[in-house]
Amino acid sequence: MAVISFDCPNCGAKLQPDDSKRRARCQYCGANFDLPRTTAVQPQHIHAGAQAAPKVVGALVTGVATMTVLGVVTSYLAMSPATSTSVTQALVPTTPGAPAQTPTIGGPPVKADPMRNEADFMWDEVGGPPIVVTIEGKEHVLGRLRVRPDDQLHVAVFAADDGKERYRVGPFGSYGEAYRATHFSVVGERLFVTDFRGKLKAFDLASGKSVQEMALTDRAERFCLLDETAESPRLYLALVDRRQFMVDVATPALKEEKLPKACDAKNVWAPRGGDPSLSTGERLRRAPKVEGIEVSGVHLDGTLGVARGVKSPGTAYPMVFGFDPASREVRWKSPVPAVDLASVRERDNEQDILAGGRYFGTYGEGPEHWHLVAFDAKTGDRLWDNKLRSIFAVDWLRGIEASANHVFLVRMSSVEVYDAATGALKATIGDESYDG
């Protein structure tokens, strides 16, 4: 017998079924449920006999018939499955996190809803942080996807302005097969992707068209891109069998060569812990010592330097200060939060970045809210501070990238795109689910 309930069988949260859509979506964990069509029990009619009986006998027969009908109907209802009625609805679970039947990013060319986007994929930050690229003069963001219904891994490119998908390449295998071996990187006009079958594949960045495929001696362990902003960036590839190569992007071809020491800082990608290259001993020594602040990460961009950390000694409220990298002179100092410090979560400010003359930071308020904040990196002026919409009762930030025009914030299994100048939310890419 089916269980009739308005509680989510996946996490126990209360559901709000939508009769018009015949589906229910759990706003807490993202699970979806089909609602069966209502069925009404048809009344059973007793046809009177052709000849009339005496009144006493007729009354007795009528009573017996009535009791019989009631018994049949009662037995029928007791033995039948608990199908939906106009008052109660049976919840039939489908794949947790499956998308509702609505337009999605990656489907037909429709304008993305920046406040809510149910797509056929989840953004997968395990493959690395988002990569910001410029195609035909417009900014795009590139990353790894887990595509339903078979949980296949793809790499895709999306327009920053509206979140529309430009193309996706793959699949490169199921998540279970390929999540450790599918890596991606961009150099110039080429997108490079490895797969679990031990292949290195090159694609045209603008179109996604396959350019070349090379067999490797083993599965890939990671890419390492150095001098990415220089005229001649260097791309290295490490394999599981400990062989290491430099990728000749122009050919493309592989030249056996050890990874430089600089790749060590990029060895472990920790999406919830922020960019590991910001917290190396060498980087931390670049920042001046400021009384009352324990530094945990340092950003450098030409004549601009910004260090993030926490108040120390005492309660570890998020703090930030700007400095001149050449003279190490402190230019400004400020708490990261703009709200009552008593409501701020300690040390929750690892996701931050310096880009386009602005410092973008994050912090947590209360048990469930996040803020995204922007400072002028030279003067320390607070440009804006946005309290982000709540996705679930508990959600995590899993990466941040930025340019002079946009901020890309990974939240659970989606990427939110913000205007760098105003902090306005422009698009949401990917389905928001605990499955990610």
Describe the secondary-structure layout.
Blueprint: E1 23-25, E2 32-34, H1 55-79, E3 92-93, E4 121-123, E5 131-135, E6 138-147, E7 152-159, E8 165-169, H2 175-178, E9 184-187, E10 190-194, E11 199-204, E12 210-215, E13 220-226, E14 234-239, E15 244-248, E16 253-256, H3 281-284, E17 293-301, E18 304-311, E19 318-323, E20 330-335, E21 353-355, E22 358-365, E23 369-376, E24 382-387, E25 397-402, E26 406-411, E27 414-419, E28 425-429
Antiparallel strand pairs: 1-2, 2-3, 4-6, 5-6, 6-7, 7-8, 9-10, 10-11, 11-12, 13-14, 14-15, 15-16, 17-18, 18-19, 19-20, 21-22, 22-23, 23-24, 25-26, 26-27, 27-28
Give start-end ranges of low-pLDDT stretches: 1-5, 37-41, 48-61, 72-116
Q: What is the name of the CATH class of the domain at 106-269? A: Mainly Beta
The CATH architecture of the domain at 106-269 would be 7 Propeller
Rg calculated over all Cα atoms: 29 Å
| Total strand segments | 28
InterPro entries: Quinoprotein_ADH-like_sf, WD40/YVTN_repeat-like_dom_sf
Please provide a written account of the structure.
- InterPro entries: Quinoprotein_ADH-like_sf, WD40/YVTN_repeat-like_dom_sf.
- This protein is mostly beta strands and 436 residues long.
- Among the domains are: 106-269, 7 Propeller (Methylamine Dehydrogenase, Chain H); 273-395, Thrombin, subunit H (Beta Barrel), CATH 2.40.10.
- Helix content is 8%, strand content 36%.
- The strands form 7 sheets. Strands 4, 5, 6, 7 and 8 form a 5-stranded antiparallel beta sheet that branches.
- Strand 18 and strand 19 form a beta hairpin.
- The longest helix is centred in the N-terminal third of the chain and has 25 residues, at 55-79.
